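Budget justification, computational time. The allocation requested in the original proposal was used primarily to generate structure tokens for proteins on the priority list. As evidence of use, we reproduce two of the resulting records. The first is shown immediately below.
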Amino acid sequence: MPRKAQTESLADSHAAPGGAAAVDRALTLLCAFQQGDTALSLAELASRTQLYKSTALRLLASLEHARLIQKLEDGRYGLGSEVARLNAVYAASFSLDRVVLPVMRALVAATRESAAYHVVQGDARLCLYRVDSPHPIRDHIKAGDVLPLNRGTGGRVLMAFGPRRATGLTVKDKNLYARIREQGYCSAMGDRLAGVAGISAPVFKADGSLAAALTLTMPAERYDERHVQKVLEAARKLSGQV
């Protein structure tokens, strides 16, 4: 009988409900490749996935047959040509609104407040997407509006996590942005507009760089601290997909 692993592999500890264990394990080998990796040895792959080398070898043979992995002359493994083909297919079919809007609609349904998705545009921020609260009393920002980077929670998050965060700032602003980075979000009342509260969290690209700020806005009297966690969860759901 095969010996039982002393430590669960990543695939076993994060198995897909109703999925196939062998597929889960093979996918962890693909996911073991990180930004900057050109090739990995069998030992490195086994270490990163917590798979036995013998198990990893069998799975690598199948991945190599499918051209998802290629074995190099020095014995190490790199990603195969099929990965590039699938990436091209994905890039051609990718639609940002099909990824972002469902998450925003779910956030609005859960909070009954307005959600917006802001990106940096020059020295300002652009509201790329907006889903309105069902409440008649709300702020009236719409998609396409250009807003300041240095006011409002969306702008604060873009400044705190973006490449401009260390340039031309006062000591007060530097301390503010450091606190936002430490807690992972920004919440404020009346920062851009009196009587309006906001909660914003960063959305990151797959390479870890900042993509956008996801923002929930509401009248100050309807501010609810419990919404912070919902915004964070929605931003994490979008991160790596945009």
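The second record produced under the same allocation is shown here.
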Amino acid sequence: METIELIEMISRGEDSRTQFKREPIGSKDLAEEMVALSNGSGGVILFGVDDDGLVKGLSDQNIRTINAQLSDAANDKVRPSIYPKTEIHRIGDQNLLVLVVIVSEGVSKPYADKSGAYWVKSGADKRRITAREEIQRMLQASMLIHADELAIDGTTISDFDMTHFASFFGKQYGENLDAALERDGITLARLLNNLGLARDTNLNLAGLLLFGGNPQRYRPAFVVKAVSFVGCDAAGDKYRDSEDIGGCLRDMYKGVISFLTRNLRRLQGEKGFNTEGDIEMPIAALEELVVNMILHRDYFVSAPWRVMIFDDRVELMSPGTLPNNLTVENIRYGISMIRNPLITSFAIKELPYRGTGTGILRALKYVPDLEFESDRERNLFVARIPREIAE
């Protein structure tokens, strides 16, 4: 980091990636700060700067003390270990010393302090987390667990839609389900365990959402909230159409496409008067984006999908920001990562999905001015399709 970059950083004040410390804070507190940054997107701790952004400087003894505390904290007070980098800068006419501690985003989340407490950044501050869902999301980021593999308490094989699954089985394996079970001498429960759709007597999330007869009985938040607004304001109180779309993933996909096609305008173009016009935006792009919304959400977040039609845009909102190191910029170049591998592996037969990771590229081909937003504050990923406002 150049000194001028450091000065600019100090001038912007503290935030979720920048922390000011006037003097040494002790190895225990330092461990908590590093854990919070590692569990987030990384950041820096600036020693020798007070909370107001005034550079006070450090003594040589201060720097020796902080370096000793860093070694103690990073190796003995953090699990797993963290490997920070340090830089020393001289600032101003008085050559005031500032020690920069650089903490990278962790690759082995979640990190905890020696007592077993997990910390995350909350704005410029940090907070201790105890909610299981937050810890699970960090385990997911490290590819240690996946939400779609977890058993759903209370479910049984009777919650399966057998007609749906038998149809899938026939298309996938080319034989009758009952005949296959009888030939192999196994129960349906054993087959579902073998396919990864159940754990013992419980369905897992993939089994429930892909083939459950009523998934919302156990996961009521996993529905699509669809609204066609009058105007361009999400806070508006007038709408043309509204629907809560539930069922299995296949049914939700069909329901969302139906909602979009009946609420978007049809344009005549060069067609004759007695011919139905074309949807105002490419249906192929809508299909790619709806599949992406359904398959790649964060299933550790207990929240619905949202489909919002405004006079000037369509917004498809999926719970959870982009996973790991994915950014809006690199997904536009075809970089992808599978967050829910079990659901995704079955989706090839259930949805118009190929699994090649090129869906966003195809959507951009049809709609070049398509916008994406990964909103960390609201924990949402948004695909935004512009519309021309009708005269």
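A brief technical remark on that second record: The mean pLDDT is 91.
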